[in-house]
């Protein structure tokens, strides 16, 4: 049978959605709207709801709707119903005041058929972060080496790709202590497998528009997803076995423990309050790879792009590093807390370019939000892209102005923001909030800040477009679900301070 294209599949979904909703409607007497005081939204068409309105990037589509209908809107795509939140105050209400009620995630369309893809749990381990600084230093060294090589040949380098390899190597080594950092192919194989598995699982979510017929989504895409999951299972199972063989040996020495060692300890500990199953270990690893690699790499890519387009900011970051570090050594993780302007740049990037800008949650029980009813099990999408460009909260919300994060006690407004910034960085919704807030936030900062600092300290960058040197980076956003650059950032680097000469 010839393979169906995505367009054919979407069309088929659409037709099935149309027919199935007709059937469901004919059996049901009343819709939710008659029972509940739901948030406002555009007038839905019969059956398909708002499907015909969708444009990409999705976060910008929702942002436009929110300027017309307000910070909380109700949308319906076939049988799938969503509430979109676009203001920081409502997001904060979800993350803080009603954290427990909104702590679940919407399930994948066919979660019962995919074991690891469907489950996940919270993780946080600050000590492991400290213990793993050597892994990050080693990863950064390989990255800088690659840039120096390109610079010496005056060869353009795909910065986006190199950053992705860097974060992938760091996560691989921290999680599994495999030879990923010395063997790029192994890390790349792992990254591709995880990426394919996740993309396939995302396609399955389209089935949500079919309501009770969502299993049809599995019928079209599920086989490939199951195959990918099996391959991931095989790869991780091998790594688990290698770790189990070494467990005895390692327990007698004080060797560095990677994440799998720690998870296996929890798996084998009979006294443990919470006993981890093998499947939970695997799904956790999948979470870490999916959530931890592209996010940090893409954020760093946005950072370099904004810095190239704002030479004055670039110069200021460099001057700050030079005055603290001088030119005889490479900037280090431990310097970051003494570089306030660099920190302000990182926060401004996270405000303007939040990766995963639509945070999915589900409410466990019937709730009220801003006076509206939120029926139990409704999918909520928190649009951090819109919330962090809210003109009521930020001056010149679309401008790259790191100074806004430099805390001065001059004005009342700044002081109010200072209060908010302390603790959980509440202004920055980029990492979500409450009990499901990103557990990798600190790791992300520890990876991104020294890398960006080293890129500024050691190199000048000229962007390349269609093979030619240009002055400005094209900041177009890819028309998809995530806030990533349309094109990978390619630059010619020129060495200003050779990092290899000053790494101890
Ligand atoms: C710039 C980098 C990153 C950004 C912008 C980011 C953003 C996010 C966001 C928005 C969420 C959802 C939070 C919520 O629902 O409230 C999340 C969840 C998560 N992140 Fe990150 N993240 C980043 C880096 C990382 C890293 C480095 C790791 C780990 C290696 C990681 C692991 C996770 C995991 C496991 C979850 C799921 C938590 C759960 O469902 O309970 N993230 N991240």
How does this model look, in words?
The chain is α+β, with helices and mostly antiparallel strands. The protein has helices at residues 6-27, 32-35, 58-69, 88-97, 115-118, 126-131, 133-152, 159-176, 184-205, 215-252, 259-268, 278-292, 294-309, 311-325, 340-352, 384-387, 412-425, 441-458; strands spanning 72-77, 80-85, 157-158, 358-362, 367-369, 372-374, 379-383, 459-465, 468-469, 490-495. The strands form three sheets. A four-stranded mixed sheet has the order 1-2-7-4. A four-stranded antiparallel sheet has the order 3-10-8-9. Strand 1 (72-77) and strand 2 form a beta hairpin. The longest helix is centred in the middle third of the chain and has 38 residues, at 215-252. The structure holds protoporphyrin IX containing FE. Protoporphyrin IX containing FE is lined by residues 120, 122-123, 171, 287-288, 291-292, 295-296, 299, 355-356, 359, 430-433, 436-440, 443-444. Residues 120, 122-123, 171, 287-288, 291-292, 295-296, 299, 355-356, 359, 430-433, 436-440, 443-444 line the site of protoporphyrin IX containing FE. This is Cytochrome P450. It comes from Coffea canephora. InterPro entries: Cyt_P450 (IPR001128), Cyt_P450_CS (IPR017972), Cyt_P450_E_grp-I (IPR002401), Cyt_P450_sf (IPR036396). It is found in: Membrane.
